[in-house]
Specification:
single chain; mainly alpha; 21 helices
Length: 497
């Protein structure tokens, strides 16, 4: 066989590989996909070889991160590059000038640029639609595609510039270090939202990943894959039926759909966070905890200390405290809580249902703070703890309905259905019809209340296991994914934000 014949024979395979590596809007690169892990297995040994030379390692990871973003958002990876260049130049200007008003103006210029880009892609059609509703004109939406992860890296960009202005950090010496921070692929498209003062010192030290980091990271990846590809995607198949057409189902079925989505969004998002944190650990970087068993919370304040920790702490430090926090009186504290969560709701999506979701969480925070003097006089026994937990869980679960449903009217219909048409005698029938779903949900509730020290002990035990046993555990997880997976790899819920 001649070289030409070999080339002709290989041409279809090369063409398929090129198609696979090219951007496809219907198939973004996901942590739960086989393509990502194939690429990551190629990436990892090269990364390890370059780790000793920090600059070469930075260039390689930046290149891989930009390709990862290209596979998720296409040509918008160029916008990420442009944003990073503008921020880096303005941060150096802020650091260079000594006059406060100049530094303040430059900081707000950077924030305005970042928010303008985010506002156009995410909120332009929302505001145009509302304007057209007021003037009763025909609404013609703009042909705008929302870049994946733009909300996450925009918040990282803003926090970096603000921290430079407040002299918490110094700007990076070279642009590539900042681009590394902003585009770091484990956290790029769905968080956690990483702070520069936490992440950049790790980059500066460039320490190799320890054995505990590598195997602990692999354990988190396994846990994350099971949460997302096995649990969240499986229970979503029933939840989607309820939310797609609420009028077809009874109150018990609607109730189960709401409970299912409450666990689905936790497993989906915390599963992504586990994978992101685990991949970063394998590379020798820590991203910080993003979820801490949030459904154990006994009040809304505690819930937001446990749920999406990187976002809630960002909102606290860059919205709530600048608004005045709790320093300007009781009523102003309640208002600041409300406004912060209102912004948090709008961050999640350009729709009134997200605004309502955020506003009601703000109301919940304000009510809890207002009731603290009374609550502090109640003895903290099991009964009180249980009912505090139950009230918080119900409140959070009902608000998830507005988060998931297609519109406000559907949300109200689902909740009305639960309260008007709920018949407890239908629960056994539901369990008989969907035994696997019920078993999985029951197991989720049990495992969610396992103490964190137990989970840490399991992770430590995994690290100490023989590599053959680790391989068997990994293969079992892969087999579970194959058994439970749907026809297509489902995107992560928070990709839309």
């Amino acid at each position: 066989m001649t070289i030409d014949d070999m080339f002709e024979a290989a041409r279809p395979a090369l063409a398929n590989a090129a198609d696979l590596l090219r951007y496809d809007p219907s198939a973004p690169l996901l942590f739960s996909s086989g393509l990502f892990w194939t690429l990551f297995l190629v990436f990892l040994p090269i990364y390890a070889l370059l780790k000793g030379s920090r600059f070469k390692m930075v260039l390689f990871v930046v290149a891989f991160s930009l390709y990862f973003y290209y596979k998720s958002s296409g040509i918008f990876f160029l916008m990420l590059i442009g944003t990073s260049m503008i921020d880096w130049l303005l941060s150096h200007a802020i650091h260079y000038f000594s006059r406060r008003w100049v530094r303040l103006a430059l900081m707000w210029l950077s924030i305005a640029i970042s928010l303008s880009i985010l506002g156009y892609f995410k909120y332009a059609n929302f505001f145009l639609w509302n304007w057209n509703q007021m003037v009763e004109d025909n609404f013609r939406p703009l042909d705008v595609i929302l870049p994946v992860g733009i909300s996450f890296y925009t918040f990282q960009s803003i926090s970096y510039v603000v921290d430079v202005y407040k002299k918490r950090i110094k700007p990076t010496d070279n642009w590539f270090d900042y681009l590394f921070f902003l585009s770091f692929f484990p956290a790029l498209v769905a968080g956690p939202i990483v702070r520069a003062d936490y992440f950049l010192p790790q980059l500066e030290r460039n320490e190799p990943a320890s054995r505990e980091n590598v195997w602990g990271g692999l354990w988190l990846v396994i846990v994350g894959i099971v949460k997302k590809a096995v649990i969240a995607d499986y229970i979503a198949q029933y939840n989607d039926l309820i939310f797609n057409d609420p009028s077809l189902y009874t109150g018990v079925q609607a109730f189960m759909g709401v409970m299912g989505y409450t666990m689905q969004i936790y497993c989906d998002f915390s599963g992504y966070s586990d994978m992101a944190i685990g991949i970063a650990l394998i590379m020798g970087f820590r991203l910080g905890l993003n979820f801490d068993s949030p459904y154990q919370s006994r009040n809304i304040t505690e819930f937001w200390r446990r749920w999406h920790i990187s976002l809630s702490s960002w909102l606290r430090d860059y919205v709530y405290i600048p608004l005045g926090g709790n320093r300007k009186g009781t009523l102003r504290t309640y208002l600041n809580n409300f406004l912060t969560m209102l912004i948090g709701g709008l961050w999640h999506g350009a729709a009134w249902k997200f605004v309502f979701w955020g506003a009601m969480h703000g109301v919940g925070l304000a009510v809890h703070k207002a009731c603290r003097p009374v609550l502090s006089r109640i003895s903290d026994n099991f009964v009180v703890s249980f009912f505090s937990w139950l009230l918080t869980y119900i409140y959070v679960s009902l608000l998830w309905v507005f988060f998931r449903a297609s519109d406000f009217e559907s949300s109200v219909a689902i909740i009305r259905n639960i309260f008007v048409d709920f018949r407890i005698d239908q629960i056994p029938q539901f369990a008989a019809a969907r035994p696997e779903w019920c078993v999985m949900m029951g197991a989720l509730f049990v495992f969610h209340f396992v103490p964190q020290r137990w989970a840490d002990a399991v992770q430590s035990s995994f690290v100490r296991l023989n590599w053959v046993v680790k391989l068997v555990i990994f293969l079992v997880a892969v087999q579970l994914v194959i058994e439970f997976m749907s026809e297509e790899v489902a995107p992560f819920i928070y990709f839309q934000f």
